[in-house]
Amino acid sequence: MWTNNTLQDLPRNFGYVILTAVASAFMVGYLAERVAFARKALKVKYPTFYSPDNQLFNCSQLAHGNTLETYPQFLMFLFIAGIGFPEASSVLGAICIVSHMSYAHGYYTEAKQSHTQLPY
């Protein structure tokens, strides 16, 4: 049962964890926006999920979809770890966000090339 003391039981630096979660929501929104812009620019109509003839759109969609596959687990582990280790979980969460953005950027820019090399 939740009591008035529940929020007082959280670590003092738990706000960093919340800020990291908010930053991750902006990351997911940005990736969704990239898919929407690619859909409009490349004239891929709804409800087409993947284009049979447009690899650039498919790469945008895959980068977003791959991020969404692990996003619930990311948030769950971020908050659970944040209860005991708020600073460490926030730093690792930020690293994860930067890694997802780098991964997506590699997918966008290397759409016509092999994906065997990392963009960094």
UniProtKB/TrEMBL annotation:
Write out the GO cellular component annotations: endoplasmic reticulum; membrane; nuclear envelope
Q: Which SUPFAM superfamilies match?
A: MAPEG domain-like
Is this entry keyworded Membrane? yes
Keyword list (alphabetical) reads: Membrane, Transmembrane, Transmembrane helix
Q: Key word NAD present in the record?
A: no
- A single GO BP: leukotriene metabolic process
* Name under which the protein is recorded: Microsomal glutathione S-transferase 3
